[in-house]
Design a protein that fits this description.
Elements lengths: L12 H12 L3 H10 L5 H8 L13 E9 L2 E8 L5 H13 L5 E4 L4 E8 L4 H18 L1 H9 L3 E9 L7 E9 L6 H21 L5 H4 L2 E7 L7 E9 L10 H17 L1 H21 L4 H12 L9 E6 L2 E9 L13 H9 L5 H24 L3 H16 L4 H10 L7 H14 L1
Helix pairs in contact: 1-2, 4-13, 5-7, 9-10, 10-11, 10-13, 14-16
The protein binds (R)-mevalonate.
The site of (R)-mevalonate (MEV) has 9 residues, from helix 10 and helix 13.
Organism: Neotamlana nanhaiensis
InterPro entries: HMG_CoA_Rdtase, HMG_CoA_Rdtase_bac-typ, HMG_CoA_Rdtase_cat_sf, HMG_CoA_Rdtase_NAD(P)-bd_sf, HMG_CoA_Rdtase_sub-bd_dom_sf
GO biological process, one term: coenzyme A metabolic process
């Protein structure tokens, strides 16, 4: 069977599905049925989803859960989370409740600047290039006026354009390094449009610049694109309480706090641990980022680069005990938007944002950071006390039961059984077998 095809994107949706099922599946009816069972019966809604991307054949569901009781700067939130991992929402909810009883989360947006760059090659003298740049600096802004005027009216826009000489690292390589304030928009389209206009201005003005030699006049723009590294778009989230207030039934507050701080210190100096530690933070962050229609790949890339900003990959969060007060905090770059993109389009995204009281981008940065810190707290709390598997497997129990197509009655019996027994894959399998053989 020929598995290559040309003009695929031009086929109708049903032609695409036919080609896929005939090319890749032996049971074509079953494949078609699986694809179609995820279609929405509301045709308009389905069309909306079809048109988000090219070559849509169906929808891919993720659960949208909610974690209530998040007290952030004295306001209560229920946080929407789109994620498939069984224990994440449960852990977030538990951490939220824990800190709600201890003063809640405190957050602060530290900065909101975003960066974009025009990467170009120039064959000549940097001093001459710099003089040229100074003469056309204002022209960049005037030429981009039609793109920037609305953003400027709202208080945002281009903050600064800098010429950077990168020739020590790469021959003939220079940049326009541009700072932006994009307010409630994530700003990717705005930034990229500005950059592409700067590139045009740069090339056109160079051709007319008399002090340039013929060679210097021909600036080669390699690309113009925003950076997902946003070390100046940073939010801080923190929890803090007396060490004694961490005491619970089987847990001594002081001993717990000390072990917790130790666990964070390990993640600060050991990259193998730091990556997993930060992955736990991203469990919370990605879930809210996704639920609110933001670009989780951009967030992931930016956050991990930030975690390595001092030359070695390290923990994003930190903890200390001072004067018997435990403090756990994190500073994290989050370039988020609450207008534009999917935010006004995807009905579930609109719902998620409304649940959060239609936050500004700054407010969303704080909420998302808190979800990350809460998740990290929950993970470290389990890891340093009971171990992660107890809670994890409890939540995973339903997945195993579903794998064995357990009925509702079987699920009820076995869930009760595993309240008192340790969940492992083999323990669940034998419990199901036992139950079924005794039925
Ligand atoms: C699992 O998704 C996340 C954890 O591994 C995070 C951590 O180890 O801190 C539990």
């Amino acid at each position: 069977m020929n598995k290559s095809i040309s003009g695929f994107s031009k086929l109708s949706k049903s032609q695409k599905i036919d080609w896929i099922v005939n090319t890749y599946f032996s049971n074509t009816n079953n494949a078609k049925q699986v694809i179609k069972q995820y279609w929405n019966s509301d045709e308009k809604l389905q069309q909306l989803h079809d048109e988000f991307i090219e070559n849509t054949i169906t929808n891919y569901y993720l659960p949208l859960g909610v974690a209530p009781n998040f007290l952030i700067n004295n306001t209560l939130y229920t946080i929407p989370m789109a994620i498939e991992e069984s224990s994440v929402v449960a852990a977030a909810s538990k951490a939220a409740k824990f800190w709600m009883d201890r003063g809640g989360f405190k957050t602060e947006v530290i900065s909101t600047t975003k960066i974009g760059q025009v990467h170009f090659l120039f064959q000549g003298d940097f001093k001459v290039l710099h003089a040229f740049f100074e003469t056309i600096k204002d022209k960049f802004l005037t030429d981009a006026k039609s793109i920037t005027q609305n953003m400027e009216k709202r208080g945002g826009g281009i903050l600064d354009i800098e010429l950077r000489n990168k020739t020590e690292d790469l021959q003939n390589y220079y940049q326009l390094h541009v700072k932006f304030e994009t307010l409630d928009a994530m700003g990717a389209n705005f930034i990229n449009s500005c950059l592409e206009q700067f590139a045009k201005t740069l090339k056109a003005e160079a051709l007319n610049y008399e002090a340039f030699t013929e060679k210097e006049k021909h600036i080669e723009v390699v690309m113009s694109i925003l950076s997902n590294y946003v070390p100046d778009c940073v939010v801080r989230a923190e929890v803090s309480c007396k060490v004694d207030d961490l005491t619970e039934k089987n847990i001594n507050g002081k001993a717990f706090a000390e072990k917790f701080v130790q666990a964070v210190k390990i993640a600060e100096i050991e990259p193998y641990r730091a990556v997993t530690h930060n992955k736990g933070i991203m469990n919370g962050i990605d879930a809210v980022v996704l639920a609110t229609g933001n670009d989780f790949r951009a967030i992931e890339a930016g956050v991990h680069a930030y975690a390595a900003k001092n030359g070695s990959y390290s923990s994003l969060s930190h903890a200390k005990i001072e004067d018997d007060v435990f403090t756990f905090w994190m500073e994290i770059p989050l370039a988020l938007g609450t207008v534009g993109g999917l935010t006004g389009l995807h009905p579930l995204v609109k719902l998620a944002l409304e649940m959060l009281n239609n936050p500004s981008a700054k407010e969303l940065m704080q909420i998302v950071a808190v979800a990350g810190l809460a998740q990290n707290f929950a993970a470290l709390r389990s890891l340093t006390t009971t171990g992660i598997q107890q809670g994890h497997m409890k939540m995973h129990l339903m997945n195993i039961l579903n794998q064995f197509e357990a009925t509702d009655a079987e699920k009820a019996t076995l869930t009760k059984h595993f309240e008192k027994h340790t969940v492992s894959h083999s323990a669940v399998v034998s419990a199901i077998e036992n139950l079924r053989s005794n039925a």
